[in-house]
Each structure stands twice: as C-alpha cells, then as structure tokens.
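Support request, please re-run this one:
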Amino acid sequence: MSLLWAALGAVAFAVAQIPLLIATTAVPGISSPGWFLNSGMNALAVGLVVALAAAAVFVRKRASIRDAFSLGAGAVVAMVATLFAIGAGTIFPIVIVFGTVFLGLSIAVGGACGAGVRALRRDVG
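Re-run finished. Output below.
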C-alpha cells in the first residue's frame, strides 16, 4: 500500500502544480511564476489538493502514519522532479526544505481532518 500512497502524493502534487506552471503568465523578475512557492494563491492551490489527498487517505479505517509519510514522500519526489525540470536555480536546497515543510503541514492538516471525519463516522454511525 505504501507505493500506492506515494503515487497518490505525486499525482496530487502534479495535478495542482502542472496547470499552474502552464497557465500562469510571465512576471518580470521571476523565472517560474507558476511555481507554487512563488505565489500565495499557488501555494494555497497546491496545499489544498495535497491536504485533500491526505484527508482521503485518513478517512480510511486502517490508515497509519506510514501512509502519511508515503503520501508525503511521493509529493516531495514530484516537487523535486518538477523543480529540476523548470530549472532549480541557486537556492534549490532552501526551496526543497521550505517546500517539504509546506507539503508536510498540508498533509498533517488534511490527515487530521480525515481522521476527524473517520472518528465522527465511527461515533455517529
């Protein structure tokens, strides 16, 4: 199951990030304005999609922390691959660290929401 969740994390990141890279218009001084860390709205879009994927994992009855780490690993691998595809630049280690923390927080929030829904379903029904 871990590879499934890693694939889900990679797909969730790609589904949010790739349209942003394609659709965002050029901005003077920014080489990749569609990158999710270059704009608050882009960060919100990517964070929301990744959080929804984490919520979907944690709504499951047998979800575990290992599943969350697998989801996060897939999202981070997709993030790093996308970063190097668009041109990493000189501060890529910092970008990777901040992106990883951002994705981790998105997964934590989404996972907590999913676990809450699972607990409510168990208690109510």
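The chain has one domain: 2-124. Helices lie at 2-23, 40-59, 65-86, 92-124.
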